[in-house]
Specification:
With 181 residues, this protein is α+β, with helices and mostly antiparallel strands. The chain has one domain (48-177). 32% of the residues lie in helices and 23% in strands. The chain has four helices and six strands, in the order H-E-E-H-E-E-H-E-E-H. The chain has helices at 2-23, 74-79, 119-138, 168-177; strands spanning 48-54, 65-72, 90-97, 109-116, 148-153, 156-160. Helix 3 packs antiparallel against helix 4 (168-177).
Length: 181
């Protein structure tokens, strides 16, 4: 009796192992809604979260570049000697390069806007980071043609390229800095 029951139990266990994650996916693998109050960057301390965009509108010569830095503001740093207890808000700076269609070593970035992030804007940054991470895991091996996007924090670097159809950086820049221009 036990010999006949063992293969049936084994098949049921295998089916449960395969089907249960599809029927009940873990919530921590799903993107949260941008409006969710649970989405926040947290304490960056004295470090910076940097979002890069390298565009390719000039073909083989590349294109313009943009950077968004998210960080603890200077005022908050002066007022919070123990940054481990600091709760926010964060600041963000948008930088645009001075050279459009050339790969020159004298490329410089000009500050376009500086803002203090609201909770909704902070959630937008987190959503962008989630989307970039998920998309980068799904991409083919890197290529050096086309638009490129990356996120850097400490020694962590997440890259996405080529990504000509990726509009999330433009959307994030608009969400953060449209009122500042």
């Amino acid at each position: 009796m036990l010999q006949k029951l063992a293969p049936v139990l084994f098949v049921l266990a295998c089916a449960a192992f395969v089907l249960l994650p599809k029927l009940f996916p873990p919530s921590h693998y799903q993107l949260k809604d941008i409006g969710s109050p649970e989405l926040h960057i947290g304490n960056l301390g004295f470090d910076t979260l940097t979002l890069y965009a390298h565009y390719s509108e000039c073909g083989e010569w590349g294109g313009h570049r943009e950077i968004i830095h998210v960080y603890m503001s200077e005022k908050a740093r002066r007022n919070s000697p123990d940054f481990s207890q600091w709760k926010g808000p964060l600041a963000a700076t948008w930088l645009l390069d001075t050279i459009g269609c050339s790969y020159r070593p004298d490329r410089k970035y000009i500050k376009q806007a500086v803002i203090q992030l609201t909770a909704a804007q902070e959630a937008s940054v987190v959503h962008y980071a989630q989307a970039l991470t998920i998309r980068s895991f799904k991409q083919a091996p890197p290529s050096h043609a086309g638009n490129a996007f990356s996120l850097r924090y400490h020694s962590t670097r997440i890259e996405l390229y080529p990504a000509d159809d990726w509009s999330k950086f433009d959307e994030l820049r608009t969400q953060l800095f449209s009122a500042a221009r």
